[in-house]
Amino acid sequence: MKVLGIESTAHTFGVGVVSDEHEDFILADERANYVPEKGGIHPREASRFLAEKAPEVLRRALDSASISLSDVDAIAVALGPGLGPCLRVGATVARALAAFFKKPLVPVNHAVAHIEIGLRITGARDPVIVYLSGGNTAVLAFLKGRYRVFGETLDIALGNLLDTFAREVGLGPPYVVGGFHVVDRCAEKGRRLLELPYVVRGQDVAFSGLLTAALRAYRQGADLEDVCLSLREVAYNSIIEIAARCLTQTKKREVMVVGGVAASPILRAKFETLAKIYGVDMYVVPPKYAVDNGVMIAWTGLLAYKSGIVIDIANAVIRQRWRVDEVDIPWRR
Ligand code: FE2
Prior knowledge:
By secondary structure, the chain is an alpha/beta fold. It has a domain at about 1-115 and about 290-325: ATPase, nucleotide binding domain (Nucleotidyltransferase, domain 5). It is about 40% helix and about 20% strand. The protein is built from 10 helices and 14 strands. The strands form 4 sheets. The protein has a 5-stranded mixed beta sheet, sandwiched between helices. It is globular and about 60 Å long. The protein starts with a strand and ends in a 27-residue tail after the last helix. The mean pLDDT is about 95. The structure holds fe (ii) ion (FE2).
């Protein structure tokens, strides 16, 4: 079976083609990334970029898989969560293709897709999942048919915290250089830990107070390197703490880090320490598949389609706030 998947929830238009016929399951993986000239993502500008790139990315994916659209068994699309204008681009392309080529359409939740591609690539079986990206910070585990949220951010996401701080103090964009976030890089020269609010409430974290306090410290004259070091330590350690709580509660024997911020080597080292202390196996999704891509949508679409999940074209509307724990996962026990 071959499935084509379309990703367009934020800054990436990605088209992936996967097959369950070979161990080498990725037949195509094409992407176009929107990089704002300055500031954060502007949803409408990003969506214009995605719409412009969509035909070319789709063409490249079909060429590199050496197939035509009539060869695929189903078309999968990320219907949420994400930015409305961006989601609409992928949904429109997917509905048009499904209608024209008379293919089943499979709805995919973007967060579930990050998890499923992580499991497929790392070989983890039943881990505590730490999902860290620009828009998400959550600790999850599979329980009773769904990926359940054990802890999450109560306000902004980790990626958002780091990018916003970097932008406000003039460290970016770009925010990631050579695999390191600019805040991680700057923190290397930090020597002193400042007192910043460490907020863990139950199993949740909160970062907006930390952002405000870090910016205030910088504006009041603290060394930028010291502020970066302190910000990073507080943010990363609070995530490690809620991951540790989930390991204790669920008694799972693995931990897997997914999402765009998973690439941080500093954070990875902290997770290695956590895994050692708890005696569990640790998996980190490689950067290429930790960021948004079409392959993860295609792969999750394939799993869903084999479980009988399809959606009528007329009902295939976007869901900007589609939570991961609203999705049944019938392909896993
Ligand atoms: Fe993502």
